[in-house]
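Regression check, F0G case 482:
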Amino acid sequence: MSKVIFHSGENIPLELHKVRIVQKLNLVPIERRLAAVREAGNNTFLLKNRDIFLDMLTDSGVNAMSDKQLAAMMESDDSYAGSETFPKLQNKIKELFGMDYFLPVHQGRAAENILSQVFVKEGQVVPMNYHFTTSKAHIVLNGGRVEELVGDEGLKVTSDHPFKGNIDLGKLNALIAAEGKDKIAYVRIETGTNLIGGQPHSLENLAEVSAICRKAGIMLVFDASLLADNLYFIKTREAACKDMSIREITRKIADLTDVIYFSARKLGCARGGGICTNNLDAYMKMRELITLYEGFLTYGGMSVREIEAIAVGLEETMDEDMICQGPQFIEFMVNELNKHGVPVITPAGGLGCHVDAMRFLPHVPQSQYPAGALASAVFLVSGVRGMERGSISEQRNPDGSEVYSNMELLRLAMPRRVFTLSQVKYAVDRIVWLYQNREMIGGLKFVEEPKMLRFFFGKLTTVGDWHEKLVAKFRADFGDSL
Ligand code: F0G
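Current build output:
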């Protein structure tokens, strides 16, 4: 994959597209943001778009679409059953993944609901490299449990391991030996492993996991939501794959798995999702639930416009110029923050830049949610909205005790082809300033705490008046700047 080299020697990502439609942004004064973040209970999910400058909450459903995707949406064929649009996506899936059976769903977690209902029985275990919030919740809801087998390197915040999302094969073999095949519902691999910082697995590791699963007669389920980034990393970091095309790598991956599911809010830059397989028996079992939960088999809860957009988006994902954009912008942001001493997950992964709140705020105990506090502080001083990916994103034990997450991260997602370099530089500038004033930031405590997925709706308040002090310091340093 070629990268443009600047004469200055600077490592700058270059946009390989032009902007044809724009949307105005709001940059409001810090005093307005103080009111907004309080109203939102320091939960960035509860902020309003009108108070946000750069929305780095997620890359889900907010990646920029291409002119070709929009054109395809205009051609969609709307009907409850038998639309001409659906086969376009079905055929694209067959072409790219080589899978005969495709079930449409309204988004990724709907696929997880169906997979868990069909394949997870009470008392079974689902080994995986690492969980995602919704994937774990569905498995647990169906009486199963999750075993995370990511290699030790995956949980180290700073590392130079190129594939921190790899499964530890020794741990997988040991688990299969200890549990036995029948206790294992399936093995799940999450590509571009979200919660450990968008970290990739290698093709080699996937091939080894696949061989172990096939030998043991265990189904291998592949969550392809973050496939675009992982494809880029396989191509650029795995020596054996450097001469393969993205299409070839994609097909090799698919051939190693039994079921692929994805959120098309990420993969394909649209909205929706799907489940693909060559296993007719598995397909038939899942098919019944599609009509129950999602809709008829030719739309599955998606609008036909989105189905058209996914088909084109998947094809565009085979283009190196398209999939390099996320990882290269993220790498730039990670390197710039790193240069200024801000603790970030390394190496840079996909999805976004992940700031290590434990090292940013060593004086804030995990019981006061350092990642949540950092998300609140970053929004306050910059209008950049990130997402807490730490203990608030966990769920309490049945006895009410906290489950402290392995990492306390502030995720600053990089929606693909959405932000320009100067916007990324602005975010870096404000975060570096915050880092220089980090001792002013305090913790948070819950004032409203839902039992399930508390990170979506929970409200917290600051421990002490550190918000007000930060605003005063901002005004002293930045004058009347926004
Ligand atoms: N799997 C992975 C790896 C994901 O990152 C997500 C969503 C899902 C499944 C569920 O898909 O949202 O379409 O239902 N991740 C989003 C995020 C929510 O912000 O990281 P969904």
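Comparison notes: The chain has two domains: 30-59+322-478, 108-263. Residues 175 and 343 are 34 Å apart (CA to CA). No diff flagged against the previous build.
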